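Listing S7. Sequence submitted for prediction.
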Amino acid sequence: MAKAMTFGGMAVAGLSLLLFGLDLATTFPFGRQSWLIDIGFVICAGILGYLSWSAYRDL
């Protein structure tokens, strides 16, 4: 069950990185309401991806 949670965290991180990175680059999904929010979510997605990967390595 723990490995499934780490894979879920990696999937959520990848999806949010893709969506907000795409919004930052092309204004496609959300119409770039605020570039500061996009950058914040990209950074948070990177942190979540790293933490998920680190937890997976520990298992």
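Caption to Listing S7: primary sequence and predicted structure tokens for the chain studied. The chain has a mean pLDDT of 96. Residues 22 and 28 are 7 Å apart (CA to CA).
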